[in-house]
Design brief:
Blueprint: E1 4-9, E2 12-20, E3 26-28, H1 33-37, E4 57-60, E5 65-68, E6 71-72, H2 73-79, H3 82-91, H4 97-109, H5 117-123, H6 130-144, H7 151-177, H8 191-200, H9 211-224, H10 231-240, H11 246-257, H12 265-279, H13 282-290, H14 311-326, H15 332-345, H16 348-352, H17 360-370, H18 377-398
Antiparallel strand pairs: 1-2, 2-3, 4-5, 5-6
Helix pairs in contact: 2-9, 3-18, 4-7, 6-7, 6-11, 7-8, 7-18, 9-14, 9-17, 9-18, 10-11, 10-18, 11-18, 12-15, 12-17, 14-17
This protein binds acetyl coenzyme *A.
Length: about 425
């Protein structure tokens, strides 16, 4: 606590404590507001509401800063593996060599999924979106891996299973959707390479692992690993607060991420760029995005917290250029994206609204270069975000101030009224 704020309401004066975080961010602690004043707060979209105090991720939207457990995302993207980043988020510190080895062994031992789960895949219509399938399959895991007696062991096993099996589930959904043979995980491959092999290996065309592609996927996943209290993470915390299983909470997070205003934006960006490529309508797209009467928005632009260039988008763009260069790929959508970015960044509307590219603007071009189909883009985001969701869920479960998540509302409907019998309505 770092002081008080005075609240004057009518002829009464109240004092509310101010809470300060480790980076100097301050918040009014309103946890006793209704008790002492009879008032609640109203904050649509929670834009001014801190739902928790958290040790995991720090972001400064004005300065474009993002750190996991204090380490800048730029440094992690340069020097860490995705596995180390996941360990860091979940356990609060980077693993030493022995811890990393044990973690890798556990992930390998848990990488297979129950064979009976394949029947589920075959029951989904072929046109099903992989995000819907992933959300269902993660929830279904619960029935295949019943709860262990020891709570700590149960949590550790569930965390390990989810981190490892999510890759297998995602790759299986891709293979089955194409009518191809499922590829099993391999013990000799590390986390990212193993996933790529499960996606692209075929009995008639063995997949050749390219270190540049593996590195691109590593960076992509690290950049998505956590982003404090965004929509899907808040869904995981809120659903988790009802003390559902971690599987159910993560399944809710995947469903939230699917939305085009959140993780689904990476697919929407590619669709928008492809539309521009086909119809040569860039100026019209920008005009539509600025038109208040049109619900269309420039996909991959803008962010609730970043009011400057998203630091992840900077790294993603650099990595995108380097990957396409190394793979000798010339993607016409990259040229369109660059042109669109330049056009938007000099436009008064985007300047005045502080709208810059977010992480999704260039990520689809990276995924295309890796060979990932557009409808799997948000699944890729979900795999990357999983360590963050788990870390946030664990933190909320361990919080001594834990409470069931249950916001209030201000009712604006009719006051008490009588039920009119059906023949008089
Ligand atoms: N194109 C055009 N105008 C925009 C855009 C955009 N992409 N984003 C925001 N604006 C405008 C709004 O119309 C609004 O204008 P107004 O104040 O004149 O009415 C103003 O900027 C503020 O927008 P809000 O919707 O209030 O801001 P919010 O913080 O709620 O929106 C969001 C954030 C949802 C990400 C928004 O920028 C958006 O829709 N972007 C496009 C979708 C997208 O890329 N989503 C991915 C976000 S990153 C992630 O989740 C991984």
């Amino acid at each position: 606590m770092t002081g008080f704020i005075k609240l004057i309401y009518g002829d009464q004066e109240f004092k509310l404590p101010v809470f300060e975080g480790s980076e100097g961010e301050k918040a009014i602690d309103i946890s006793r507001l209704r008790e002492i004043t009879g008032l609640i707060t109203l904050d649509p979209g929670y834009a001014n509401t801190g739902s928790c105090a958290s040790d995991i991720t720090f972001m400064d939207g004005e300065k474009g800063i993002l750190r996991y457990r204090g380490i800048p995302v730029e440094e992690l993207a340069e020097k860490a593996t995705f596995k180390e980043t996941a360990y860091l988020l979940i356990n609060g510190r980077l693993p030493n060599r022995d811890e990393l080895t044990s973690f890798s062994v556990l992930l390998n031992d848990n990488s297979l999924v129950h064979e009976d789960l394949r029947v589920f895949y075959e029951s989904f219509p072929r046109s099903s979106h992989p995000m819907g399938i992933l959300s269902s399959m993660v929830n279904a895991l619960r029935s295949f891996y019943p709860e262990l007696q020891d709570l700590e062991e149960e949590i550790n096993m569930t965390v390990t299973r989810l981190l490892s099996k999510i890759r297998t589930l995602a790759a299986m959904s891709y293979k089955i959707s194409r009518g191809h043979k499922v590829v099993y995980p391999r013990p000799d491959l590390a986390y990212c390479a193993n996933f790529l092999n499960m996606m692209f290996d075929s009995p008639v065309k063995p997949y050749e692992i390219d270190e540049d592609v593996v590195n691109a996927l590593r960076v992509f996943w690290i950049l998505h690993a956590d982003h404090e209290q965004n929509c899907s993470t808040s869904a995981v915390r809120l659903v988790g607060s009802a003390r559902v299983t971690l599987y159910a909470a993560i399944s809710a997070g995947i469903a939230a991420l699917w939305g085009p205003l959140h993780g689904g934006a990476n697919q929407a960006v590619i669709e928008m760029l492809s539309d521009i490529a086909e119809n040569k309508n860039m100026a019209r797209v920008v005009e539509r995005a600025k038109d208040k009467k049109d619900p269309f928005r420039l996909m991959g632009f803008g962010h609730r917290v970043y009011k400057t260039y998203d630091p992840r988008a900077k790294i993603m763009k650099k990595m995108c250029d380097s990957l396409l260069n190394k793979l000798k790929i010339s993607d016409p959508l990259l040229d369109i994206a660059e042109e669109l970015e330049a056009l938007a960044l000099k436009d008064d509307y985007f300047i005045e609204h502080n709208l810059y590219p977010n992480v999704d603007f260039y990520s689809g071009i990276v995924l295309r270069a890796i060979g990932i189909p557009a409808n799997m883009f948000t699944v890729m985001f979900a795999i990357g975000r999983l360590p963050g969701w788990i870390a946030q869920w664990k933190e909320s479960m361990d919080d001594p101030n834990w409470k069931l998540g249950r916001p209030r509302q201000i009712y604006t409907g009719p006051t008490q009224t009588k039920l009119v019998p059906i023949d008089r309505r």
